[in-house]
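Hey L., structure's done. Input below.
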Amino acid sequence: MAETLAEPVDALDDVSHDELGASGRLLFRQWAVVGTLCVLPVYAYVLFALFSGAAYINRAVGPSGVYTYQASSMLHGHLWMRPSNLGIEGFVHDGRSYTYFGIFPSLLRLPFVAIFGTHGNANYTAGSMFLAWTATAIFTALLIWRLRLMTRGHAALHRLEAASYGVLLASILGGSVIVFLASSPWVYNEDFAWSIALSIGVFWSLLGVIDSPTWGRIAGSGALILAASLNRLTAGWACVIAALAIGAWFWLSKRHTGNRQWVLPVVAIGMIPLIVSCAINYAKFGLPFGLPMADQVWAQVNAHRRDFLAANGGKAFSFSFLPSTLNAYLNPLNLSVSGVWPYVQPPSTLPRIIGSATFDQTYPTASIPATMPLLTGLGIWGLVCTLRPRPHGRIAEVRFVLIPAVIGCAGVLLWGYIANRYMADFMPLIIVAASVGLIDIARRFEGRSRAVRRRSFAVLVVLGVLGVGVNAAVSTTPSSSWSKGQLVNLLSYQRIFSPGALRSTLTVTNHLPTWAPAGRLFATPTCSGLYRSNGENFADVPGQQAEHLTMSPVIQGPQYVHDLWISISVPISQLHGDTTIFRMGPTRIVMRPFDRWAVGFFVVNPGRPDITWPVAGGGWFPLVPERRYAMQIVADPNLGSIKVLWYNKRFKDLGIPMIDHLITTKAPQHVVATPPADRATAKVVVTPTGRVLPPYPLCRDLTGR
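Output:
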């Protein structure tokens, strides 16, 4: 062993510095940048493209415009919004509609909304999420460096150790649920993306206050805590608890009596954001804490939501959910491996409900250990290092952010809702714990041989690459929000890489089931329709179950898809009554004036008057006289659904959904076009485009028909 330790220093991993100075920081920064850049293409592709055929800087899926509409309301001096902007997510208080989402992402949008308004696809969701990812990268790198200082002081930084921190950063940014969030740029995932970034920023800043309190550090911490509190309440409360705990420690500690002068400022940076967030919550809902769940529109239109609230005493939180949520998020077997490319996806069935708990909704959900093996292992060791009786160095002080991070996970564990995206609430805890774990492992390997350190680094890299691959694969698992273009492109790749396994998932039938395991394919005998099950169960939403929302359409024949132009020749104020633009037996799509500037679209006689959700009406859109607007109507009797899409650009695969409703008829369907002889005098002109859908040989190749 002595001879081994006396071996020459390897040029790759043993270049060290006498003390942790500027050269050490530079070495760390270099590897932090390398780690970030290695996974940047993965994250950027999932966020901006994801089988769409081309990158789209403003890619979004609905609902995604909530923050933009809230920013517009803020510019007008209030927080209430139009009910049509919120739909079922709105909360009605004092006759006005509010969103439960925070105002921080809306604050970022204020200058853009002030200049460009809220029309079209100006939701800025993907751009905001990329900014949050960048902030996460910066704050995580700063946090790792500060934790190393607290753990090891001015110990020399070796190149291989610095490289291991690059692997850790890459695993966090590209090998975690953060990538899954990017797969659906909508309001729910943007909320989580900023929650992770701001929480890590707060923890880094508060550790700086513990290390050496200054007015600048305290002010910076206060600003970050306020931002976190204005974004996601549970994460904000965790940050507030951390600040108050540090203030209490400053007051009670006998070894650091000099910090008592900072007690009031530290307590203030916790209390002020709490008071501000409570004031905003009270202005919206009449409550300083929590949400009046019975006031949400969804509770008014969905019977299961009302049953769920009644079963849990009117609340959405309960300890009875804990066994099921722990099993969903922490069971290492919660991952599905198949022969279909990319070979890994979340479980094809819904999470197991343990006990007699009544959940609101559950979705196929992977687990933290299954999707983040490296971060899980390092995180467990980091928890041991931090919480043991006599931790190394000053690592005991990390408890002031680690324990609040644990508390921040309580919300999702006690919430009657299970979904893959909720793993994001664990990320602040995982990032802090995994960083501590890796730093301690690097310390313990300090005097080991070069071969041992290289093998350990290789294991680190393999686990990191595995995490990136698994999360990239999980992120490519289609959901109900995917477009047909995305599904066609995905299945085209699967047909190339796993043709036999893909065909084995196909069933030819005239009758689609209301549910099937995720990944199953269904085709009609004539290939007029090809559908893929997303594994989501809509048994608690009868209308969506009736329209087979669990079946994502991959291919729909030209007899079901109708493109048209619509225009008006007079101001909307001169339009009266309904104008029929589409017929399918007794079912009609009509255009109806809403006010002086906008019209709405409605389904008349869908065939099921007992179904009130989804509603038969769509969004409200402005029409300018003499300007043509593109629309698409998709009436699919195989699904039993009719959809109306409003397009900003000429028949692209990115449209604004206006109507998604069920139909029962299978009668012939056609666009009610305005006769050419009447177009000069008609107030509303409807013109079929005559666009021919491109042929898709995919269904024929899979079925052999």
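The chain has four domains: 2-64+123-475, 65-122, 484-556, 561-701. Residues 1-19, 650-654 have pLDDT under 50 and may be disordered.

-- N.
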